[in-house]
Amino acid sequence: MSKELPQPQQSEEVDLGQLFKLIGNAFDRFFKFIGRIFNALFLGFVWLVFFVKKHALKIVIATVIGFGLGMAKEQVSAPIYKSTAIVKQNYKTGENLYNLIDYYNKLIGERDFTSLSSSLGLENEEKLESIIGFEVESVATKNDEMVRFDKYKKSLDSVLASTITFEDYIESAKTSENPLQRIILKAKSKNVFKDVIPNIIESINRTPYFEAEKRKDSLELTRQENAINEALSKSEALQGVYQEVLKQQVGTDASSQTTIRIDNTEDKSVTKEFELYTNDVRLRRELVEIQRKKEDKSKIIELVSSQENTGTVDTSSRLLGYDINKKIKYAILLGLLTFVLLLTREFVRFLDRFKDRI
């Protein structure tokens, strides 16, 4: 029986060798599959290069024709005017502003000029019908976003703040929350802008909710201002007491000096008047900040800069989220259309080769 013991070990060695062979074959097939994919991609790229080279003249001609069509359309079509205005949100009016602009655009799409006249406060029907649409977008640089991100992290728990990255913040942040927003108005008339932009701002300023918030903020700031003024008055009175004591100390002998100690430390008693002075400076600085806040909060939303009086001719058009010249847009579109049609024709010819095999 002892002579039969090594046989299971030989079987295990054979099985292990077969396992390694299977693993090696699997890796070999995997790398060959990856190689075929890269080879197919390379062949496809080479075919595309030769395809473009073969039809380059047709694509260029189509692009030039598209550019010419865009130029002709600019000459024939009535000009479209555009005006922009930058507003500053002192309250969180972003959602309200974006919803209001969307509401105006829907009224224009439905050609409901009666409701639009009521909302914008315009009675001139000709001016209303000339409005093409509104746009609103955030005015914020990456540096502005980083400053807001830093403030946001400071408002969170340190453990939670360490898990949030700048990319996560940008992805979740709403563009409507940025203080500065740009309102864009496009119209067929050049003289409609001076009546529209101020009415949009006034419409938000009249919102009952934000009017109530403004009153509450104003009362809170007034209370803070009164509390600081009261503290300054008491501080001035206390400084007067210190001055009287110091005057009395000057006329007495060193052995009979009287010292006022608030914190029971004699070596610091002489600095109390200076501490009160520095505290007054801090409180007065807070008063200046409160006054600035009251001025900022006096308006719910305010106009920063605008071209509201007259509009300028708009020669741009939006393509894939970018504003480009209309002539260039038509050139790109016609060139791409030609390329797609030629590619489709080549694909149909390729399929015709297999028609007889089916």
TrEMBL record:
The UniProt keyword set, sorted, is: Membrane, Transmembrane, Transmembrane helix
Q: Where are the transmembrane segments?
A: 30-50, 328-348
Q: Does the keyword Transmembrane apply?
A: yes
What protein name does the entry list? Answer: Polysaccharide chain length determinant N-terminal domain-containing protein
Q: What is the lineage of its organism?
A: Bacteria, Pseudomonadati, Bacteroidota, Flavobacteriia, Flavobacteriales
